[in-house]
Amino acid sequence: MQVALTNTFVGRLKPHAEPYEVRDTRLKGFLVRIQPSGHIAYYVQWSRGKRKSLGRADVLTADQARTKAQEALATHFMGGDPREKDRDRKRAIAFGKFLTEHYQPWAEANLRSGPSTVKRLESTFADLRGKELTAITAWDIDKWFNRRIKEGLKAATLNRSLTAMRGALSKAVDWGFLKSNPLSGVKKRKEDSNAPVRFLSDSEAKRLLATLNSREERIRRERDNANAWREKRGYDLLPDLRAAAFADHVKPMVLLSLHTGVRRGELFSLSWPDVNLEQGFLTAKGPTAKSGNTRHIPLNAVALETLARWREQSASSGLVFPAPSGGRFTNVRKSWDAVRRQAKIERFRWHDLRHTFASTLVMRGVDLATVRELMGHSDFALTLRYAHLQPEHRAAAVARLVGEA
Q: Is the residue at 370 inside a domain?
């Protein structure tokens, strides 16, 4: 159907069982489309199969829509793409809004470390949250790199943030928010592959265990006091922590990390079906493992007892260590930092518990091939970081020179 489109005419249009269109006799390519739902919108079409929406009929007048159609057609006749302005408007989005509304839902659904990746981007690049995606440049990141290096951050830490940022902007390209990734040419900073790893000394390990025990007693004492208060007032009592093996999740998490070398993300995602107490091993499944490969981790006496005692008091049949909300932990930074400070252990991350596991194995004579298998390293170079803890091997090698002299 063709007719001169006016507000009066368009206002009288009724939906049919199938979508239909009415074309304007005054401007070729200008039309209105009516959906069975009653939705009516103006469109402009400049060639077969190429069109774009101009807006809803309850928002635009026919004359306003016709003017927009004329502009689009003029752009086409001059060799341009009428859709380019729409793309430009789509690109005009701040980095913070892009993260919250677009990247975060995708990352949480598709990336194993989605929640932590988004949090890293939000905190690390907080200064860029209000900046439009199209305005972010390699220079912005170079300045950020230089500032952070001066503040004493390690290249490895900064490179992880760069990788996360580059990945987010790559999705922005895929989704049409950017024409190209401004960070594609930004190189990672050189890392010291031979830098010594941080692990607990014997005295630090003793202080850590003592602090965990002290923390457990403090929590139990607070629960005792709370129940005494509730009993006096006739309130229902909270569960008696004196009858439980652990006061909360922190101590068993630390013990399991120290005695299995399990990664933090693997620990947070560990579920009871992945734990075999009878045969003494747990399974870190591929989707939650950093390498993407499933591995079976043997449980020594401490790890086995920890999990068995925790199982007795756990109300969850799913996650071994559920967050208070019942879902998956994303971090335990607050409680961990408090423990670390009280134990007077400086410059020590949760991940360094994993380094402690590997370092202790090496120092007690376990060969590097076995350590690599237990750690789940995809690259043997990662395991070689612990080789310096086998000084007797190097000493034996250079001692041979004495007999040959």
A: no
Structural domain including 154 reads 95-174
Q: Angle 104-107-112 (CA atoms, 0-180°, nearest 5)?
A: 140
Give pTM, 2 decimals.
Answer: 0.59
% of the chain beyond a pLDDT of 90: 44
Q: Are residues 221 and 331 in the same domain?
A: yes
**pLDDT, position 353:** 94
Q: φ and ψ at 32, to 5 degrees?
A: -125, 140
- 220 CB neighbour count, 10 Å cutoff: 17
Overall number of domains in the chain: 3
What is the rounded CA–CA span in Å between residue 382 and residue 377? 7
pLDDT of residue 405: 45
Residues 219 and 328 in one domain: yes
Query: What distance lies between CA 191 and its chain's CA centroid?
Result: 23
71 within domain boundaries:
yes
- The two beta strands, 20-24 and 2-3, are parallel
Which of 50, 82, 114 is a domain's end point? 82
Residue 21 has phi, psi (to 5 degrees) of: -130, 150
Place of tokens 């009428």: 82
* pLDDT, position 276: 94
